[in-house]
Amino acid sequence: MLRGEHVMARMARGRLIPHRLSQADTRTLEAADELCELYASHVGLPRARLEAALTVAEEELGPRLDARRGFRIVRALGKLLEERAGWTSPTDADPYTIRTRIFELASALPEPPAEEPGLLEAPTREGVLSQVASETGSRDPATLMYADRRSAQNLESFERPSPEQLITRYNVAQAQGVMYSARSLVVDIGAEADARLVFHYVKLLGLIYDLEPTKRGYRLRLDGPLSLFGSTRKYGLQLAKLLPGLLLTAPWKLSADVEWRDRSATLELDSDSPGLASHYASPKELRERDGDVREAFVRSWERAKDTGGWKLEAGPGVLPFPEQKTALVPDFTLVNQDGEQVHLEILGFWSERKLIERVALLREAKRRGYRVLIAASENLGTSPETLEEAAKGEVIPYKNRLAAKAVMEKLSSR
Amino acid sequence: MAGLDPTDEVGPLLGYALGTLIELRYESGTLLAGGLSPGEAPPGPFVWDGRTRQWRSPASAYREAALAMRESGTEYLDNAASFEKVSLESRVAMEPRPYQREALAAWRRSDLRGVVVLPTGAGKTAVAMRAIEKVGRSALVVVPTLALLKQWYSVLTDAFGTSVTVGLLGGGYHEITPLTVTTYDSAYIHMERYGDRFALAVYDEVHHLPAPKNAVIPRMLLAPYSLGLTATPERPDGGHDLLPDLCGPIVYHRSPEDLAGTYLAPFEMVRIPIELTVHERYEYAQADAIYRDFLQKHRLPMRSPEDWQRFILVASTSHSGGRDALLAARRRREIQAGAMRKGATLETLLRRHWDDRCIVFTKSVEEVYALSRRFLIPGITFETPARERKEILDRFREGRYRAVIASDVLNEGVDVPDAGVAIILAGSASRREYVQRLGRILRPREGKRAILYELVTSETGEEFSSRRRREGFAREPVV
pLDDT, tens digit, for every residue of B403-451? Predict the structure, then answer.
């Protein structure tokens, strides 16, 4: 993430356009690569040296990139590279102990320690230092006394990105930077997008949402608890952190209400905006979970001759629980001619903690009058009674694959 | 999609209504009232939140909400406040000065909510300590800088360390205890998680509170009691009008003139011009000529930090002489800052005042470490950890350390005990900063006359900076 001072955007008719670097521009690629090289070549060296080199780079590379904003671009790129750096202490000695002893000894002298030995044999700096050296066994106490400073840390590791990766990260970071000043966010999410993923991040970031179905999916309005009492930029950071999450799925379109230099402005982005890609790893628990069972079920459903008037919807419905800042996104949603909706949730391989959360949500969905069928694997580590209770009897046990027939039987059982 | 009636109210745990009792709950900087039947509104400041179908108010309305419930005879269950009673008895004998006692009494008369205005050096901290002791419940202290964070940590640990552990939030620390110190920046980010834990909020340098970001902090706190401290409540943007709402009205006001002589020690100011050596002067003149020629050629003014940035920009993009001008500018600054005689003069002063507790101020952090290495006296900067900082200042107070060298961190409101001599090596031309720095050695002490030295390199830009400082000072005397 960038700091506020690195963020650049221009305003055109009330719309904010975050600063962007082009991956097609040779000079930009060269500059990005030079910075990566600068970091890589400082592995094993102190931070202070790297920072001095970066300052020189700002003055040399900056104006080449952009006459006006080159400095800030280079500084911002440097900041993003720091996310990939690991640091370590340059010494095993304890600098605190060394300096404390030095100060104690020096302070006990009748006059300040002299730099050079004089005729009067006044106490010298060298005298203090060599006493500390022999007491602590460290060779160069004057150097070590502040070896725990940040600037003395050594660059231990650097995960070097390609110049293209760095530029993509920069473009996302600039858009995020504009969002730091956002008061609220409206996201239109297509039915094909992974809604579970979106709500995973909404909950993680503690945002409050308002959900409204649209023709092509649904619309989320996002802000935070205090926004009710007047718009605030308090949740800008959380909103900004949502962006890389959104970038893991498609299609979507967002519009942020931003307070930019004391004026109201809008930031608009969508899943097709050029030069943006996520640097988040998609959350483990959502990755390919029960994917095989789901695919097999879809195939089984498509092969079934008679589905009793029930159709499988293109994307699952979203059951909003806004007061818990989350939503239940089932695996499938089925609908019949009368418009009756039934949701189907497949519980295959879940960790116990996640399962408890999930069952609580399913129970709540029931309470609110949604019809949710639960297909539970026989390998699931939970008692059948708990599920029966939560689903009010609408549990479909399965062994390896879930057959369309089993679901149909339950559908018509009411 | 099936939905709920929008007025269908949702209780705390997955929607099970509690029945007759209203339940107050804290959530992310806000207060929720639950357990009402559909269509029923709770008394007090609550607003219906259609997004989550709950009755909600800012956390700051907690006191008002509780009073409204009581007045209307509504029974309620308080699951919001999680502050505790803490037996806080100061270990440090604090005999308050009369005006400190008056300030505290005025604050109590104002229902433990209000702002106390006292000049720098008059012991605002002592007033806060008494307030914390009096309230005897979990307290949060909010301060503007990391230096003050560490300073408050030290003072609170001294006073209450045996009864509670003092917590820190900000500057790399994240430990919340019933007595926690935090910065405005960290409070803004994190208080929505901890806003239910404190009964009293103390805002140090409370003139920072009305800034748009900071004004969100009190809204996220349930804290029914608050105390603001400052020497200068006025803000150029008129934001001080918000103070009564954010922290309470000004309940007590004393100016430096009110307390001068009686409580603040007089001091003497000595300005020492540092002349460059012949060699330095020659080099400086050369660098200066190249630099000024460039400024003139490109018609660049040099009055503000922005002008400096502009100079760098023009110089680094210019084809003729830009690079030389940049190097010259840098060299010029180096000579100014590192003048050899400055170091030698400092050595003389340290020698002269080796028994008088010297504090040396310099603007540059790197200079602190360089001088600390050269003279083997402890340095304090924003990098110094809270515990070590406390230790250094404690030892300085006890006389175990004779001198301390510090960068700007000892500025605003930071309490340095009984320094006899202050030496300013370099500083920006800010009047406010200057006055506050002076405040550091204005601690009253028997038979004491403090001396303030200012070392300024002559024939260089620093002279102008020093003049600006003193002009500002002359307009508004502190003593």
Answer: 999 876 555 445 555 677 888 876 444 344 454 555 555 454 555 567 7
Residues of chain A in contact with residue B372, where contact means CB-CB under 8 angstroms, are 145-146
Q: What is the pTM of this model?
A: 0.77
- Cα gap B32→B27, rounded to integer Å: 7
Distances (CA, A) of B40 to A225, A276, A323, A368, A373: 21, 48, 19, 20, 35
pLDDT in tens, A319-375: 888 777 778 888 888 988 888 889 988 887 666 777 777 788 888 888 888 888 888
- Partner residue facing A63 (CB), from B14, B57, B317: B317
Chain B segment 46-65 residues within 8 A of A by beta carbon are: 47, 49-54, 56-58
Q: Could you read off the pLDDT of A131-166 as tens digits, one per residue?
A: 999 998 888 899 899 999 999 999 999 999 999 999
What CATH number does the domain located at A180-281 have? Answer: 3.30.70.240
Coil, strand or helix at A176: helix
Picking from B216, B347, B383, the nearest residue to A150 by CB comes out as B383
Cβ atoms within 10 Å, residue B235: 16
Structural fold of domain A288-411: Trna Endonuclease; Chain: A, domain 1 (3.40.1350)
Instruction: Name the segment(s) of chain A with CATH classification 3.30.70.240.
Output: 180-281
- Residue A261, number of CB atoms within 10 A of its CB: 9
Where in the sequence of chain A do the CATH 3.40.1350 domains occur?
A: 288-411
Q: Which domains does chain B have, with CATH numbers?
A: 22-79 (3.40.1170.30), 98-259 (3.40.50.300), 267-275+339-475 (3.40.50.300), 278-337 (no CATH)
Q: Which two tokens stand for residue B370?
A: 């360089």
Structure tokens at B320: 């003729």
* CA–CA–CA angle B373, B375, B379 (5° rounding): 60
Distance CA B383, CA B293 (A): 39
Q: Tens digit of pLDDT for each residue in A86-130?
A: 999 999 889 999 999 999 999 999 888 887 776 667 788 999 999
CB contact under 8 Å between A228 and B49, yes or no, is yes
Three-state secondary-structure class, residue A240: helix
Q: Which residues of chain B fall below pLDDT 70?
A: 1-20, 92-95, 121, 260-268, 305, 337-340, 408-418, 426-449, 458-479
